[in-house]
Each structure stands twice: as C-alpha cells, then as structure tokens.
Specification:
- Helix content is 31%, strand content 21%.
- The chain is of the alpha/beta class.
- It has a single domain (27-186), classed as Rossmann fold.
- A seven-stranded mixed beta sheet has the order 3-2-1-4-5-7-6. A two-stranded antiparallel sheet has the order 8-9.
- Helix 4 links the parallel strand 2 (68-73) and strand 3.
- The N and C termini lie far apart (37 Å).
Length: 197
C-alpha cells in the first residue's frame, strides 16, 4: 500500500467514514430535515442547486416555514433544469453566476439568512474556496448555520475548521457538516435539548 493510500485510510478511519451511501447525492437530506426541526428556518441560501437540496427546501412538509430560497449555480445546463422545475414557486429566487462560485460567496450578505447550504463546484478544492469565502461574508458572525456536503474530503474538512462551532454527521457517506459562528442548540427527536452546533 502506498503512503498516500495509507494516509487516506487512516484519515477515513479517524473521521468515522462509513461506506458510500446508495444515494450519495442525498446523504445530506436527513441533516437538513433535522435542522428544520431544530430551529426556525425561514430564509435559505444555497450554493449549488439540486434535486436533493432545492426541492427539499421548497417542500412545505419538510420545511414548512421557508419564506425565501435564494439559489446560486454556475452550470448553465443544470441551472436551467432546476430553475424550470421550481419556476412557479414565488419563494424561489435563482441566479446563474459566473465561475468560480467563491467570488459570489465573498460578496454575499450572510446575515440575511438562517441557513446556508454549500454543495457547489465539481471539485472539493473549489467547494472549500466557497466555504472559506463565506467565512468572510458580511454578517456570518450573526449566526446563520452553514451546512456543507462531502466533508469527508480532506481539503473540505480542513476548510470547516475556521468555524468555531462544528458538528459532523458521519452516519451516511458522503458526510455532512453543520457550522456556525455562534452555537445553536439542536433539539432531539423527543423534544429535549440535544447537542449543540
């Protein structure tokens, strides 16, 4: 086994990496639903649109309080598919932005949102840049929760460390993280106080 493969194996074990989910594009959905039940999520921004994010956020049974979903994507074909699917929903505001996505994130006003979902770009390195740019966004310290998909990737996991409050959800792979500047209590399914982000 090469040194690189050995290092990856130890890293995967250290973060509790499970086997790849049968639906890897949807492994973040249970985390999003849990967060929707843990605090009032009215305004959401997503960097990277998708069937398992945009559609979930606009589903009133899963996110009953959502008043606004602002979505950004840099792939024109993918943007057209998702934007057309939800064009009739007045809560949905979609923007096709130029690549790289991190430049959009850097100009973003984070304080206008309760939850920010990051699942953009085709590489972990580019997504990490978006996450790092969000840390510099106006109002990020006021408390929006940032949810990131694919945090089992070392470059992305490292980018999460700049957020003082982090919770990693490793039950499904790809893994998901919830991050924020100020700490949030998470409700347990029985209604009692649970862990904190």
């Amino acid at each position: 086994m090469s040194l690189k493969a050995l290092a990856k194996a130890y890293f995967d074990k250290s973060i509790g990496l499970a086997g790849i989910s049968k639906e890897p594009y949807s492994s973040h959905v249970p985390v999003l639903i849990h967060l929707a039940q843990s605090f009032e999520v009215r305004r959401i921004a997503e960097f990277g649109m998708g069937h398992f994010s945009t559609s979930v956020f606009l589903d009133r049974t899963l996110f009953p309080l959502v008043e606004q979903l602002t979505s950004f994507d840099e792939d024109p074909k993918w943007f057209a598919v998702i934007a057309q699917k939800h064009a009739s929903d007045p809560r949905f505001q979609a923007s096709l932005v130029p690549s790289p996505m991190w430049k959009t994130a850097l100009k973003f006003r984070a304080s206008d949102y309760d939850l920010i979902f990051v699942d953009d770009s085709k590489s972990g390195r580019d997504r990490a840049k978006t996450l790092l740019a969000l840390r510099m966004a106006r109002g990020i310290a006021k408390g929006p929760v940032v949810v990131v998909h694919d945090v089992e990737l070392p470059v992305l996991r490292a980018a999460t460390w700049i957020y003082p409050n982090r919770t990693y959800f490793g039950n499904l792979c790809p893994q998901t993280a919830a991050l924020c500047w100020k700490s949030y209590p998470l409700r347990r399914t029985d209604g009692r106080q649970g862990a904190r982000i």
